[in-house]
Amino acid sequence: MKRHFVFLPFLGIAVFVCAYFYAASLYPGSTFGHHETIGYSHLHNFWCDLIDRVTYAGVPNPSRWIAELGMIALLFSLLSYWYYLPFLFGPSRWKARVVRVCGCTAMFVGLFLPFAHDIVINTAFAFALVAFPAALIGLVQNREYKIFAVAAIAILFCLISFVMWRARFDLELLPTVQKLTFLSFFTWIIVAVRRYSRFVAT
User: Fold this and answer.
1) Which among 40, 49, 160, 198 is least buried, having the fewest CB atoms inside 10 angstroms?
2) Residue 163 neighbours by CB distance under 10 Å
């Protein structure tokens, strides 16, 4: 059972991706900068547009429930990820406790995204900002250099996305950066799970 639970993030990512594309197919249209567009643009619409009650054009959004279910599945599955990630650098050390508590808390806070978008993002990012350095330090100390490199790229994209959003800098480019952030994080998760699953199973 423990071995199967380790691979839960794979299922969460698969559900999220399927829900994302299905929700995108239902999205009526309009982007942050152009309210007259039709349909969902992967390069110009934010992912969060899919969970809005109404679009930028004021039209009811039928994709909302599908996108929210995908988000919930992903965040719950990543509780497993943040719990088991410290197996790569010693599950009993202080870094492990920081990664587990702050990483899991960030995922839990994220569940409230549809109700208080800005507050949730700021709060979840604050916890992630504590978990990230602890994870990177642990990976380097345990000589997990390949996973460290993948994690560093994912975290860099996350930081760039957050700064662009907070500074309201080039918001028309941000949706593309956001999708690259998802892709880099999913890559980190997949690589890390494949690695730490060996330790958890023993």
Assistant:
1) 198
2) 10
Helices 94-110 and 117-141, interaxial angle, to 10°?
160
Rounded to two decimals, the pTM is 0.92
Could you read off the pLDDT of 153-192 as tens digits, one per residue? 999 999 999 999 999 888 889 999 999 999 999 999 999 9
C-alpha 53/C-alpha 108 separation (Å) is 21
Q: What is the DSSP string of 37-81?
A: --S--TTTS-GGGGG-SB-TTS-B-TTHHHHHHHHHHHHHHHHHH
> Is residue 164 within 8 Å of residue 177, measured between CB atoms?
yes
- The dihedrals phi and psi of 88, each to the nearest 5 degrees, come to -80, -15
Q: Which two tokens stand for residue 176?
A: 């593309």
For residue range 84-93, what is the model confidence (pLDDT) as tens digits? 999 998 767 8
N-to-C CA span, the chain: 13
Number of domains in the chain: 1
Query: SS3 letters for 136-169?
Result: HHHHHHCCCHHHHHHHHHHHHHHHHHHHHHHHCC
Q: Tell me the residue range of the domain where 10 lies.
A: 2-201
